[in-house]
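Batch manifest, entry 17 of 40.
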Amino acid sequence: MLEGVAADLQKNDKRLPSIMAAAEAHRRAGLAAVTGKHYEGGHWLGSFAVYLVTKRGISPY
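Output type: structure tokens
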């Protein structure tokens, strides 16, 4: 979601570095939680992880 927000901002937008830093932190934490240990991690987070790594729905910026 944060990468999608960033994709619609101008390249010189002053908020962009903060948004991208938050996106990277969320990416690391989210992907680390994709496990089969719990249903949420193995199913729901896995589904969203596919969107994350394929950048589905995000226009290039």
